[in-house]
Amino acid sequence: MISIRKLPADELSKVQSIAQHTWPTTFANILSSEQIEYMLNWMYSLEMLESQLEKGHTFLLAEEEGTDFGFAGFELNYSEGPKAKLHKIYLLPEAQGKGAGKALILEVADRARKASQKSLLLNVNKYNQKAIEFYNRIGFQEIYKEVIDIGNGYIMDDVVMELSL
Question: pLDDT per residue over 2-49, tens digit each?
Fold first, then answer.
């Protein structure tokens, strides 16, 4: 049975660990190993995760029988008004395809809905077709594309998707 719980600050290393195990597989055919390492060091340092928590982000951890296997990080009242933003969602490769990703997104959507958010936004790499198809099945729709300069000569080339709540 999958359980999802809010992650306290002293357990953010679990997010970091899952990301470090997930990213190399998830992005192997999309990003260079140098860009993967750069982004992991930047986006998943404990300092960055703690900073996000201090700014109001919520991290949820998915676990089953004491094993941590996925997480989601989101923010309410994102810059576009009463909309939530799903900033991060990753599952260990061995946990994918078993309903945990959908369970995490539904939990985020439920929390956002209860906080009077009108929709849930997310960015996904435009070449990550598996993820885009997954989000489409849940009900997300593409609303625009954007390219974000993340420094060190790297960019994020994303599709922005939205789920009405």
Answer: 899 999 999 999 999 999 999 999 999 999 999 999 999 999 999 999
**Residue 160: CB atoms within 10 Å:** 15
Q: Outline where the chain has alpha helix (H).
A: 12-26, 33-43, 46-54, 100-114, 129-138
Q: Tokens for 51, please give them.
A: 């900073």
User: What does the pLDDT look like over 40-81, one tens digit per residue?
Assistant: 999 999 999 999 999 999 999 999 888 999 999 999 999 767
CB 86 within 8 A of CB 72: yes
Q: Hey, what are 88's tokens? A: 């991060």
User: For residue 109, which amino acid is it?
Assistant: A
Task: Give phi and psi for 50, each to the nearest 5.
Answer: -65, -40
Of 12, 98, 96, 18, nearest in space to 59 by CA: 12
Residue 76: DSSP 8-state: S
Q: What is the C-alpha separation between 23 and 40, in angstroms, rounded?
A: 8
CA separation for the pair 61, 9 (Å, rounded): 12
Q: What is the pTM of this model?
A: 0.93
